[in-house]
Structure formats: C-alpha cells, structure tokens
Amino acid sequence: MLADEIRQAAETAPRVKLPEVAAVLWKAYGAGHVSEAEAEELSALIEARKIVPAAPAAPRKPGGSRPRSDASLERRRRWAASGRLPPAVAARFTPGEIAVLAVVAAEVCRRGDCRLAVGHIAALAGVCETLVRNALREARHLGLVTVEERAITGWRNDTNVVRIVSEEWRAWLRLAKGRQAPAPTLRWLADKGSCRPAASSAGGGYRSAQGTNTDRDNPVSLAPWNPSKAAGRQGRGSVSVT
C-alpha cells in the first residue's frame, strides 16, 4: 500500500528529505490513496522525526601538517626561519610549506638539484608527506620549481628531481651563500705566545695583515739594545747610504 511506503520513507529518509516525504503524503491524501487516519499518523511520524536532534558528527582524526613531537616542531621552525626563501616568495606559503621548500633549497645549493624522497624531506622539515606534496605542487604551479618524475618500470619510480627555476629565488640563494662564508679560524702558537689566523679548509682571504715570524724569516740574530752605544752613534753623525 502507498501508506506503508510513505511510512517506510518517513522512518528512513534523512531529515533534509522529510519535507519531500510530507509533500508526497498530502498529495496522496488529496488523491484519496491515503485515509484521514493514516494521513494524521504519518504526519505525526514525520513531525517527530523533524524535532529529533541530529547525531553528533564523528570527531575528526588528527592529521594534516601538525607536528608529532616537539622535535618535529623545532625542526619546522628552524627551517622556516633559515631565510632560504626570498620574502616575496615566502609570503605565498605557510610556515610548514616554507620549511619544506627550505629543505629543497638547501639540497639544491649542495648538489644543484633535490633528489630526496618525499618521506626524507618530510622528516627533515618536521611535517607530513602530504604537506610536502602540496608545497611542491604549489611551487610548481607558481613557476618556482620544476619536478621531473623518473619512472623505472610500469609500477616503480625513482625519486623526483626538483630544480629551482625562479631567477629571484636563485639570486637570493647566491647572495645567501656569499654571506655565509666561514671566517678564518685562529691557531695558538705556543712557542711564540701569540695568535695567528690560520687559513680554513674552505678557503678565503684575510682582512687584517698576517704577522711576520721574524725569527723564522730573518735568521740574523739581533743583539740587545744598548742606550750608550746608540747615543755614541748618533753623536758621530755618520750616515750610511746604500
């Protein structure tokens, strides 16, 4: 019977569909397919379903880019504050995405491109793998990087090759590399009791003149200074020109 079908629909339909069930009910009542008693009963059922509070939504599972530990949060903040992105570029990304791109930039400075796996980048930056993929996708969409996919077989892939193509970003990295040149270290000479700057393994020059080791460079042994002899030489007034 039509009344049974309407009752089943009123009991199982979602709350947003109950007005449509009520419209079918009164249309059937007007056509004489449902009696007055059945119409009143079904209408009361529909109204009761409307006032029943909706079931609370299931709690959302924690995820996304939230760090799993304090160490992850520290790594993320350190990479985000490393200054490997120009301010105009960094303003387009979240702190987590900036940390990801900073890891990529550090690898590019080291070897020319970034071939780290997604999981490796995520572990270094203190973020999840999804955030790494989102950051690279957005950077590629903005024309900042290129991502080369390397397929080995039909079901196996090597790690992607990420290259920075933004001239602004590349110039920023070159300037940053010049500013981060290591300063020369100091070596203590125990026999002379003084400090001399020693050239570091990374190379570089000195801004101050290096002291001369007189005893080593000039083997002539100088006699102690005698004031009386010096005065006698000055009294003779002899000048020797070579």
Please estimate the helix content.
40-55%
Largest sheet features: 2 strands, antiparallel
| Named CATH architecture of the domain at 70-176 | Orthogonal Bundle
Q: Regarding CATH, which class of the domain at 70-176?
A: Mainly Alpha
Main-sheet strand order equals: 1-2
Poorly predicted runs of 5 or more residues: 181-223, 236-242
Q: What's the mean pLDDT score?
A: 75
Order of helices and strands: HHHHHHHHEEHEEHH
CATH superfamily of the domain at 70-176: Winged helix-like DNA-binding domain superfamily/Winged helix DNA-binding domain
Given the C-alpha coordinates, what overall shape results? elongated
Figure out the total of helices. Answer: 11
Distance between the termini: 134 Å
- How many E strands? 4
How much strand content do the residues show?
5-15%
Short description:
Residues 55-66 have a biased composition (Low complexity). Helices cover 50% and strands 10% of the residues. It is mainly alpha-helical.
What does this structure look like?
With 242 residues, the protein is mostly helical. Among the domains are: 2-50, no CATH class; 70-176, Winged helix-like DNA-binding domain superfamily/Winged helix DNA-binding domain (Arc Repressor Mutant, subunit A), CATH 1.10.10. 50% of the residues lie in helices and 10% in strands. It is built from eleven helices and four strands. It has helices at residues 2-12, 18-30, 36-51, 70-80, 87-90, 95-111, 118-125, 129-141, 167-179, 214-217, 227-236, and strands spanning 145-151, 157-164, 185-189, 194-198. A two-stranded antiparallel ribbon has the order 1-2. The chain is elongated and about 90 Å long. The N and C termini lie far apart (134 Å).
